[in-house]
Amino acid sequence: MLDFLLAVPASAIVFALGAAIGSFLNVVIYRLPAGLSLLYPPSRCPRCLTRLKTQDNVPVLGWLWLKGRCRHCKSPISPRYPLVEAATGILFLWLFWVFGFSIATLGYWAFFSWLLALSLIDLDTMTLPNSLTKSGLLLGLGFQFANGLAASATDAILSLMAAVLGAVLGIWLLDGISLVGSIVFQQPAMGAGDAKLAALMGAWLGWKLFLIAGFLACAMGAFVGGGAIALGLLDRRQPIPFGPFLALGAIFSLFFGEALLSGYLQLFFPTF
Description:
By secondary structure, this protein is mostly helical. It has two domains: 1-101, no CATH class; 103-272, no CATH class. Helix content is 72%, strand content 0%.
């Protein structure tokens, strides 16, 4: 009973922290591709440019209080803002429930924040900014080293080597897929940013979980893209952003990758 009473406020704090980070991610997603400062000016209505009040900036609740409209000009505010905040809060809470109070939790909070920002920027602009992919890659290498160092210096070196291997595998694999796809379809199959995002994922996940994430991303991309073409929503040569599928693959892989890998080995290699 005591554990439950302690877990409830901790979970509430974690969700609130995640939602607040999600609010900042909304700023990054909007301003970074436009080349705007992330810190100035403060949050404001994009239509009338009126600065938002403090209570209007409360994650999720601020949008509900305003009923999805600017307090001053009454122009609609996209529901994506509270959805990103809520999704970030849920992911932070999920990671906290799985990894508890640990370095892994802090690290994966950062990892998921990078994934959310990159996937939504890709949806909006069909680009994956180098500033995010490169910083996320370096952060992933540093995380693996620090996570291993918590056990021993040897583990830190081994973890860093595994992260480097995962990053190299990620960029080579996506570059290879892009090359083959370009030859087959006679047009660019992927952007350069996808390979950089794959390298970022490989650094955070390691090569085994990255392979699962890459497989899931390709499967989801083929299913969604093929379905959209079959329904006439997309042209066969119309590009679609692959970043969101890579991000989803990474999230599923982190939570379920070990179970999927274990099930696969038991099914096809029962004596392994």
